[in-house]
Amino acid sequence: MNFLNEVINQASKKIGSQKELDKYLGLAEGHLTETKAGRRGLPDFAQMRLEEYMGLDNGSLRAASAIITEKDTKIKKIWEKLVKAEAAAYKFMGDQPAKESVKQTAKKVKEIFKTSTKK
Fold first, then answer.
1. d(Cα 12, Cα 90) in Å, to the nearest integer?
2. Residue (of 47, 45, 39, 40) closest to 63 by Cα position
């Protein structure tokens, strides 16, 4: 399962259903189903709202959504690196010491992105 799908699933459980999450995020019913299937990305406003709802750093879902919509394979690989780092951090969010690890990983993600875009 990919990172974005994992976050959507966890948020759906937290709010009660995927339909309710669509509504909470201001999306048309079924949008998240399309996102999970890889047919639609999440609009920026929905990404930010989902990040806030799940306690994620701002921008942490940007790469996960961009993988769906990006056509350039070089740029898509950059997004995939970012998602891999963010997903690793997300797995450790359950305990307090790991939250510091998440912050450190987020810094690394930003560094990877800056380095990758300079090439």
1. 16
2. 47
> Could you give the C-alpha distances from 31 to 5, 19, 43, 103, in angstroms and in order?
12, 9, 10, 30
Instruction: Name the token pair of 41.
Output: 């990305």
Percentage of residues of the chain with pLDDT beyond 90: 32
Phi-psi region at 17: left, alpha or beta (left = phi > 0; alpha = psi -120 to 50): beta
Per-residue pLDDT at 5 exceeds 60: yes
Host H or E run for residue 89: helix 73-90
Please name the residues in contact with 69: beta carbons below 8 A apart, sequence gap of 6 or more. 40, 41
CB 84 within 8 A of CB 101: no
Contact by Cβ (8 Å): 99, 93: yes
Phi, psi of 81 (to 5 degrees): -60, -45
